[in-house]
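Notebook, p. 212. Picked up where the previous page left off. The plan for this session was modest: take the two constructs that came back from the sequencing core last week, fold each one, and keep the raw output in the notebook itself so nobody has to go hunting through shared drives later. Recording the first one now, exactly as returned: residue sequence, then the structure token string.
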Amino acid sequence: MKKNIVIRNLIEHSCVKYWEVAEALGITDGNFSRKLRKELPRKEKEAIINKILELKNEKEGEEN
């Protein structure tokens, strides 16, 4: 079973790329992918989810 499924689903349905999330977090996309291999602690997960939502809102703002 895949780990961090909430984060993965949010990325897939937000039209945000994995590399964009990694860049926003200040890490490489490879490190971000490795990070997602193991279930993350709740606080770290929440921080990533918030960053994804920020990026999604920015993209939606650019489209309008």
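Okay, moving on. Second construct, recorded in the same format:
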Amino acid sequence: MPRTIEGRTHDVLAASLPDTEPAKALVGPRARTANAPRAVVCFSGSRDHYQLAWALAEAGLLEKLVTDIYIDPARIPFGRVMAKRRPKMAARCSPGLSHRQVLAPLLTGLNSLLMRTPLGSRSRQIWLDRSIGRRARRESWKSDTALFSYSYYAAAAFAAGATRPRFRFLFQLHPHPATVRKILQQEMQASPRFAASLQWEHELGAPPEHFASMGQEPLMANGWVVASSFTAATLVENGVPRDEIHVVPYGVDFATYPCRDCPPASHTPFRVMWIGSMTQRKGLSYLLEAVGSLPQENLEVLICGHHAVDRSVIEQSRIKSIRVLRGLPTAELASELRKADLFVLPSLAEGFGHVILEAMSSGVPVLTTAATCAPDVLTDGEHGFIVPARDSRSLAEAIQWGMAHRAQLYGMGLSAAAQARKFTWERFRVSVVKAYKEMVGRNA
């Protein structure tokens, strides 16, 4: 088996009990709950299934969610019927939020819709992000509340000025852009044939002024929450105090990704599965090289993804049996996942890598790198394998071991499913509120 990765994170907030100690009393802010001020939250899309805003709403701490589009099917004619036909529509709301708590400016929503047309562009996306941040800042100032912003919106929300919020808390969605840029530039030097794929990434393709503003966001904040210890390490590398960063891993929907109840049939090929964008940032070439170096008999690879920037690399691989499926509905994707022997995601840099928890929940062991949530959610050799990034040989060794110990690998997947069930969304929400109160107390 691949070697054990050391340095596992021990301060994961999700492992903590709810905070029962009151934060320091605050002077000035309007209505507060449990001695903490309410907060304005901002992001676009259905980021993390609205769990951050939901957590604060549940605790009576949400002032407003400022976003681009929010559609409650129950509030529009034939909405429930349309939501069944178009699940993405139903995903643009949360059962934990009242529509009165959500602000979605019309112009912002219009530009968000235009991003899905040929009129979409990087400059429009930047405008959209900034407009959400600016509106959230105004709402926070008007209501005299805290501001809890996701990265990409915080540059506008936290900028210096007369209306700058006192409490500026950042949810760093992805690893720090400066660290990611360095990783991707190193990859370009090591694998120049993937230059197009890597330059497509936001950290390399962003205009200089916008990249600089993204890099400054963490330094504008006075409280930080991240979903993985890897992301926390990138913030530390760029000037954020480690003891002030709260690591709160995401949860997983067990109903959508139920654990399988039987192993893959012994007469079927050993299936290695990949889910995600087909790009070099996800370590695509290293998987293909690893599988291509192994005997091809009784071995197959299934890639379910999007953004096929590196599709030609797949077509040129030495893998005898490889399939690519795009645009699968979630239910079909989950069904395919339960048929896999091993899920592989050898990413170079992930803010979390939610699909890792989804695979574990499905009873499938995971082979991934430490540049993901893996050190926070699984034990190497027990629920899957953690190998170094850019290491095709270690990937091949792990796959080969799995092929030789198929029954044992299945048992490892069942252990992974039990482990995944510790990471509920309820646990995430409790931990976010605990982090929020601690950040308020530190800055009071």
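Notes on construct two before I forget. The mean pLDDT is 88.
Flagging for discussion at group meeting.
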